[in-house]
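Exercise: predict the fold of this chain.
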Amino acid sequence: MSATRLCCALSAILACTPVLAANPLRVVGETFTQWKERLFGEGRAKPDIVEAPASGPVTLATGEPTRIVVDRRAPERDFPDGRSRYRVIELPAPVDAASLRVQVIARDNPDGRGNVVFKPLLYVLGDDDEVASKVEVAPMHVDIRPFRRTRLLGCAELGKVRRFAIATTPKAVGKAYEAKARNAVKAPTRGGFYYSTDAVKLRLPYAATGEVVIELAGDAAESCERA
């Protein structure tokens, strides 16, 4: 190989390195389908979803997916990324690290056609209720299946934490989650007919309020990255 070709090859490898580091699925050699099945798939035992109280702090027990609604009844405060409505989530005890499975549920657009979603930001809170750190749940992966509500799937790792808030940022409102493409969907319907859609691009506007399901992982095998 000539010196020129070698330099080009090295440059290409170095250019890809940040992308690989930003995508934990590719770093550990796990495809999106494998990641989705491991954390959210049909093959794992799925306990019933717990409904969080409509107001006040939410206690998040290990292995109990909890539905949390951040609506106009939720409190509002200033965060590092702007003012937002939020809910406070408490763990049973302080932990040095926490892996959270996050599902953002698409809801009807109150201002028009289609659905909207919530862009989740997690703020670790100190004993004084001040923000100690921020984690954005990213990337989010769209999950569309016949006869089920569209959802965005993500996973977030928090450091030492006892309490945190889930909020959004006003910078996101007016923008949208966009998927490069949705694969064609083909499946039998409940009535025995055949359901199919063409591959399409997807755009879900971000809203100031929304609905999420959060689950605290119980062991390393359920962490965002494979142990």
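Check your answer against the key: Residues 3-22 form the longest helix (20 residues).
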